[in-house]
Amino acid sequence: MRNPDDYLDSFLSSFSRTQRTGFTRGETSLPKMKDIETLEEQFMMLFFPGHQGTGSIESLSKAVRYNLEKTARLLSDSIRLSVRYENPEMGEGEAARISDEHVEALLDNLGAIRKMLKKDAEAGFEGDPAARNVHEVILCYPSMRALTVHRVASFMFQRGVPLVPRMMSEIIHSKTGIDIHPGARIGESFFIDHGTGVVIGETTIIGDHVKLYQGVTLGALSIPKQGCGQLLVGAKRHPTIEDNVTIYANATILGDVTIGHDSTIASNAWIKESIPPESLVITQTPEIKVRPKKRLPQ
After folding, report:
1. Are strands 179-180 and 191-192 parallel, antiparallel or unpaired?
2. 95 and 84 in contact (C-beta within 8 Å)?
3. Which helix (H) or strand (E) element contains residue 98?
4. Which residue of 56, 162, 181, 265 has the fewest C-beta atoms within 10 A of its own C-beta?
5. By the 8 A CB rule, do 214 and 249 touch?
């Protein structure tokens, strides 16, 4: 095999980042996925300290303070790196200032986010007869982990934090099978039963007291383009689900359509148009034939 230096120039030419002045100084590092994964665990301990355990820390206030400081520090570092990466000419001090502003805004809203998560857990208990209590929902249901991460990631996404919200959503997607874009706006008392295979797109809007089952897709059709042919980023292209809607397993709802309040969407429905309030959408039952098996000769 030839010397690796023989391959270096041609390989480096594929990296446009080598032209960034900050790259050679080691100042445009990306946030680390392992740190984002640690953040996911920290948020679970922060919002549900009694359920996730407090270790050797003897009081709730000390546990919350410890997790708050650790979470804020790790989140601030990750946001600072993401801001520097997106803006390589920005000074370190300015990136740190922006990061601190984002983290402080989140800390100011932790109480409101936790109240939302408590309502999500209660909705899970009320909506699933298999749940014995709210504690079981918090400890065992993948939707609670997905929503805990989403409600934080969505807050940061709406503030324009780069990279970190998407990294958080992909970490929890890999753990739970629930794929929620941080741009999706989700109301109170939201519950996903089972959860595996659920997809909720970026511009989805979900009202209060909505329940989804496994395999539901709230997705987009073709993405609209600007006159120059570029994709129209941020255009509303996913469904709006109004209050008190239940969507059963493997239903697919595509495009900028509205599912009216108090409606029920049956399993395997395929919807590309708006549904009026208080509707029941069902799919035709396929014909089932039963016949005896052919026996092989003895």
Report:
1. unpaired
2. yes
3. helix 92-108
4. 56
5. yes
Contact 157, 79 (CB under 8 A): no
**Residue written as token pair 């002045």:** 21
Q: What would the pLDDT profile of 215-265 be if each residue is shown by its tens digit?
A: 999 999 976 565 555 556 678 999 999 999 999 999 999 999 999 999 999
Residue 253 host element (H or E): strand 252-254
Round the CA-based radius of gyration of the chain to a whole number and report it.
23
Spans of the chain, pLDDT less than 70: 1, 16-28, 51-58, 223-233, 298
Quickly tell me which residue has 């990306």 as its tokens: 30
3-state secondary structure of 247: strand
Instruction: Report yes or no: 211 and 193 within 8 Å, Cβ to Cβ.
Output: yes
- Can you list the domains of the chain with their CATH numbers? 26-177 (1.10.3130.10), 197-284 (2.160.10.10)
Question: Going by C-beta distance under 8 Å and a sequence separation of 6 or more, which residues neighbour residue 47?
Answer: 110, 113, 114, 117, 148
